Amino acid sequence: MKRPPRPTTRVASSPGWAVQRRRHRGRDPRATLATPPLTPSLLGIEPDPELEEQIAQLQRLELENLHQGADVRREAFSIAGRPELRLRLEQGEEIEEKMPCHVRLRKKRRRGILRYLLVEPVFPALPFFLPLLPPTPKGHEWRGLRLDLHLGRLEDELEHVWNPIFYTSYGWRPTANIMNSIQMRAVLGINAFTFYELNRQGRIPGRLSRGLPGSRYDTETVMRWVFLRGHEALDVPMALD
């Protein structure tokens, strides 16, 4: 398995999901949808043209408001004229309020979006609609490598996060050479309290502190540790494919 060459200069940290969202502003979201449009049948509701149009409007509303802390409850409930759809929004709001969260991160949750419920086989309260797909990494260093996307999650913010990855001899790793704490939590799928406690105990290797604000980690060091030993210590399943 060929690895990208080690950079000769300091590599800036990945711009992250927030910057990637800004790149998509003003573009047709249908061009970068991660999944087909949501249908009433996927929500357990009898298909109906009027209902399908309302769901499509809710999806457009959500994709236009991907920023942290977005509150579109007023707009969402004005769109959801059908009682079964309004009930679904109300149930999503209720579960969002009940889900535990680090006190500093609760304000980053979005409001007024369709979410998975407790009875559904996905992490409860995550949005139904996936974020827009990020751009594929470009450059000669990626030639001959198997690139892919990993769908991570931020348990406290209740968000999906796409991470561009490539496959290595030990597993896979994000394309970013340096990860911050948000990217780390999304890749590992652990909550903020667990991450901060592991950080305090120094149990996650590869931390970079010299001249860098906050928590920054060398991606190669972290992911080698995760696949060789860390996933067992963290009780995190890490699939090779």
* String of helices and strands: HHHHEEEEHHEEH
Q: Tell me the count of domains.
A: 2
Helix amount: 25-40%
**Sheet of most strands:** 3 strands, antiparallel
Detailed description of the structure:
The protein has 241 residues and is α+β, with helices and mostly antiparallel strands. The chain has 2 domains: 20-108, no CATH class; 136-234, no CATH class. It contains 7 helices and 6 strands, in the order ααααββββααββα. Strand 2 and strand 3 (172-174) form a beta hairpin. The longest helix has 16 residues, at 83-98.
Quick structural summary:
This protein is of the alpha+beta class and 241 residues long. The chain is 33% helix and 12% strand.
Q: What is the topology?
A:
Elements: H1 16-23, H2 49-63, H3 73-79, H4 83-98, E1 147-154, E2 159-167, E3 172-174, E4 178-180, H5 181-188, H6 192-201, E5 207-208, E6 216-218, H7 219-234
Antiparallel strand pairs: 1-2, 2-3, 4-6, 5-6
